[in-house]
Amino acid sequence: MTAMPRYRTDPSPRALAARLRALRTADVPVACGVYAGLSTPGPASALHARTTHSMAKAFVAGASAGVPRFEPPPSAHLRLLTAASWGRLDGVGADMTTFPADLASGLWWRVHEHAAGSLSAAERRVACDLLLRLGYPQRAASVIGLSVIDARRHVFAPEFAVEQLAVLRCHLPASAVEAMALHGARSSLPPETRRDLALFVVFRAAARGVDSTSLQAGAALAVKAASERPQNGFTGALSRARLHRAIAAVPFVRRDIQETHRLLGRALESLASATPGDAEMDRLAWLDEAYALHCLLVRTHLAAGLGQRAVACADELVELSPGDDRTWALKGDALAACGLLDDALDAYGRGIALGGWGAARAAYLRGFVLERLGRAAEAAEDNVLSQRIDPTSSVVSAGIGGDQQPQVRSEPGARGRGVGERRDAGRRRAQTRAVQVRADLAHAGEQAVRQVVQAAVRGLG
């Protein structure tokens, strides 16, 4: 199997500003307009974008009670990245009222107006999720009454615990948020809430790819909470699918592939037993879980060396969400792993065509495959495109035995050092600064959030 490199990007605020500057001139506009203006979804819109648009329609129509909780979208900065890719820096501000009128749909302004009114608990929950998806974390916090964030004293509200956790992720270091979630999962909150908090810990810990006490504790607490109040019907089946998808991470990080596949098989069985009715939100909830599960299946099959199975699961992703750049990234990885390099080129090309920040990874990996095919000139063009879109990235190559080495790329002034080596040192410094910024936000509240965002926007000039 061909081992594909791992593409990484710097999560710090300074790196975000650099990406916004780069996107402004990269000439790769995002094809979907949902996140910057709530335009009607089109063929190039990902499943998570269609879900966001449907949530907005339900919210303004007074149907928030029928909106379930969904997986979070892949980036907390989709509005900023979309607007920047269109060359519209006037769309990256921190205040919803200043969003450009020519970009905003009528639905955008109805969401803005409705969120400012008197809301029920269900409406506040949906408004918080929606505002986070649209890139307004400070307003999302105010909707659920979270005006001051103190990691040492915070107590989760039973009805808004998941939403509070999502807001906290925007303002605090990941380690602090995970510790708070684990504490909440051990508390006297309702079982469903404790399960969701524990699952958050599991998914976050699993993303690091190593066994840890937090991963084991989160999985155990999630199973315990789920057993205290079993759910039936459609919602219960989806909850079981998500639970088994999460706890499969425990054997996976231990390289126990047989147990991993057993648990993922149970997740698939639960998903198959969930039959959505005619309600649009139920159908979207089923698709949402199906997409997340098949993404995990592709990754686990690739890690286990099962390339053909990975390709089959990636084909399911294409059916579920062809407008998602993650779909084509995983499809390309699976095809390349099987040696189907020409097909992998086409998959990565589909990801580039969707535009925006996600095109950077697709362009780099297409260049990687082109190099393997001996097409050096085309590979160089794709490498240049990748760096033009996201200059904050680093890449490490994965060896067959799991060893990872920095990938060397030729850049002005690089002096032959690996991109991973150069970026990792810079990332560590940037992350130290980022932790301090987020800690300051936790104590200073909404005004500090606004000041940091405005400072980032001023730096784009």
Oligomer: single chain
CATH class of one domain: Mainly Alpha
- If you average the pLDDT, what whole number results? 85
Helical proportion, percent range: 55-70%
For this structure, the CATH topology of one domain is Serine Threonine Protein Phosphatase 5, Tetratricopeptide repeat
Which class do the helix and strand fractions yield?
mainly alpha
Query: What are the secondary-structure elements, in order, as H or E?
Result: EHHHHHHHHHHHHHHHHHHHEEHH
Shape descriptor reads: globular
Strand content: under 5%
CATH architecture field of one domain: Alpha Horseshoe
Strand neighbour order, sheet with most strands = 1-2-3
Unreliable runs: 399-453, 456-461
CATH superfamily of one domain: Tetratricopeptide repeat domain
Main β sheet profile = 3 strands, antiparallel
Gyration radius (Cα, Å) is: 22 Å
Distance between the termini: 46 Å
Helical run tally: 21
Describe the structure.
The protein is mostly helical and 461 residues long. Among the domains are: 1-27 and 323-461, Alpha Horseshoe (Serine Threonine Protein Phosphatase 5, Tetratricopeptide repeat); 32-169, no CATH class. It is 63% helix and 3% strand. The protein has 21 helices and three strands. The protein has helices at 13-26, 47-60, 78-85, 106-115, 121-133, 137-143, 161-171, 174-185, 191-207, 213-228, 233-247, 249-253, 257-273, 280-303, 307-320, 325-337, 341-353, 358-372, 376-389, 419-444, 446-458; strands at residues 6-9, 393-398, 404-406. It has a three-stranded antiparallel β-sheet. A hairpin with a 5-residue loop joins strand 2 (393-398) and strand 3. Helix 14 packs parallel to helix 16. The protein is globular and about 60 Å long.
